[in-house]
Amino acid sequence: MPVSRQASAFRQLERTLTRRRLLQLDPRMRGEIALLSLLIAGFLFWQVRVPLDGLTRARGPLAGTAVIVVAWLTLAGLGGILAGTRHVRCLEAGPAGPEWLALPCEHGPLEHHLAWASRSRAWWLVIPALGVLAAAVGLMPTWWLAPLAAAFALLLYAASTLGCAIAYRAVRITPRKAGLHRIEQILSQAAPRLMRRRVPSPDWQPAPAWVALAAKDLRITLRLGSVLRSVSLPVALGGLSLLAWQIPGEPATRHFAAFTLILLAAATLAEWLAMLAGSDPFGVLRVLPIGVATVWGARFAWGAAGTLLLVLGQAIAARELAPHAWQLFLIWSGAATLTIATLGVNYGVTLFPRADLAQRLLGLALGLAVVASVMLPLSGWIVLLAAVLHSARRLPHWSRLEES
């Protein structure tokens, strides 16, 4: 098949994949994502509008345009980092889809398609960009807005493409084989390398189903590099939260740093739990005589264990606090960590086997909670609890999930 026809076939595949991914979400969830996006864009509009208005009145619309261009460059750079990070993980672990090397396609269209899959994550940054652009309405000539929007789209596309290109070159190939293109060598050493790896025969032990699932999760975490890297983040951030109490200066500074690191550790713990919930083969798990309580309980047990370890560590490290403040700090830390971990478990189970979608919704929900806290103190906790309760309402639908 000519390269041009292969490129056309891949473009058709990409359009079909985009449409199917949208249809996978039920109308209620699509509405929820739209509402979250609207709230995030509205928060940025609220934060940017007043300073931008003051700047344009003082120095003219060109100064306001310069600020927007800086915001565009920042968001585009972040998009390049997101796309590049995703592309490295995808190529190292083996991209989703068929056995690409078995298809009669040239390396050029295949490279472009795999990069397209990684670039798709960067387009979520359109949401904050719309909030910034809306803040400029009425402060500068209207005909400037369309070129600014087009400039952001081009910058984001260029940055995400550059990020994928750098990631493509950053993937190590060992050993190098003469006569094979780089993408062929990368794909040949990715997933099959894990399949050829010898593992010991399973040692069957009688145990409750949720214990067996939890033990399986531990083995997968220790065996797969991508999952091990994911769980290393909450471990590292939890350790840093303990070391935060050694920071010189005011006690309030140490308190703030420790609690911030605890929240970051909880968020990465929830991301790991969502990844675990989507790590099982759909056809294998669904034929087992287990229900949603077993699947949910196995992952919640890991979240509760992580929360307990973190609280015990803080109980030792935060001894400089007064007794009442010490108790209050431990209660808030434990409750926040367990709530965020529960949200990750709920999304991972209810969106099974789409772990990627569960992680994206988790990020949106946590981002919305942060935005709400900035706008109105303590309101972020209400948003977080609402997200946990709403996601829990979808748990009974687990038995009706379909693989897609």
Short description:
By secondary structure, this protein is mostly helical.
Shape: globular
Note the gap between the termini.
28 Å
Structural class estimated from helices and strands: mainly alpha
Number of helices: 16
What does the average pLDDT come to? 81
Order of helices and strands: HHHHHHHHHHHHHHHH
Please outline the major beta sheet.
none
Low-pLDDT ranges: 192-196
Task: Provide structural commentary.
This protein is mainly α. It has 2 domains: about 5-10 and about 30-195, no CATH class; about 205-400, no CATH class. It contains 16 helices and no strands. It has helices at about 5-25, 25-60, 60-95, 105-120, 125-135, 145-170, 180-190, 190-195, 210-225, 225-245, 250-275, 280-285, 290-315, 325-350, 355-375, 380-390. The chain is globular and about 60 Å long. The chain starts with a helix and ends in a 12-residue tail after the last helix. About 30% of the residues are buried. Mean pLDDT is about 80; it is low at about 190-195.
